[in-house]
Amino acid sequence: MTTWRKILAWDERLLVGVSRWRRRWVTHFLRVMTHLGSGTSWTFIGVVLFFIGTPKTEFMAYRLAFGAGLGALTGQILKRLLKRARPNSRIHGFEAVVSNPDQFSFPSGHTIAAVAMAVAWAGINPGLSLLTGLFAGLIGFSRVYLGAHYPLDVLAGATLGLGVGVASRLIVPAL
């Protein structure tokens, strides 16, 4: 077995192992979290921040728009190039407990956006930095727990999100 196949087998075992931890209240909470990490939620947050109209909220809206936009574009391009099937399509008998937004798994777009926003908004406010970091971690974990992504999809999404967040900070400088 090649090293790559061993890594993918480990990735699958880890996903299946996490799915065994499912509890109804945790599943409900993580469904809410994963929904809050969707493109619709990011758009809503950006619009609200922009229309609040203070220099700080407009700045945050611009970083959000750039980060989420670049993250979505990057993630969708990679998904179409790499075409890794979702776990419920690939693992016999495995069931995701959330509907998938598309057929491809790698990388996790939800995680890209959440980490990008945590990085882009880091330092604006200590409480906000802690909240967005925690939120990004929960989004990433929710994608594996709910069966939408393999752990490596989330790891790749977090790595890309870090890069997108840094790019957002460089393109949209601080006030």
Features:
mainly alpha; single chain; 175 residues; 8 helices
Describe the structure.
The longest helix has 28 residues, at 55-82. The termini are far apart. With 175 residues, the chain is mainly alpha-helical. The protein has helices at residues 3-19, 24-36, 39-52, 55-82, 87-90, 109-121, 126-145, 151-171.
* Poorly predicted spans: none
Secondary structure: helix percent = over 70%
| Number of E-state strands | 0
Cα distance spanning the termini: 53 Å
Structural class: mainly alpha
Tell me the strand percentage band: under 5%
- What pattern of helices and strands is seen along the backbone? HHHHHHHH
Sheet with the most strands? none
The total count of helices amounts to: 8
Average pLDDT rating: 91
Morphology call: globular
Radius of gyration: 17 Å
Short account of what is shown:
The protein has 175 residues and is an all-alpha fold. It has helices spanning 3-19, 24-36, 39-52, 55-82, 87-90, 109-121, 126-145, 151-171.
List the helices and strands and how they pair.
Layout lengths: L2 H17 L4 H13 L2 H14 L2 H28 L4 H4 L18 H13 L4 H20 L5 H21 L4
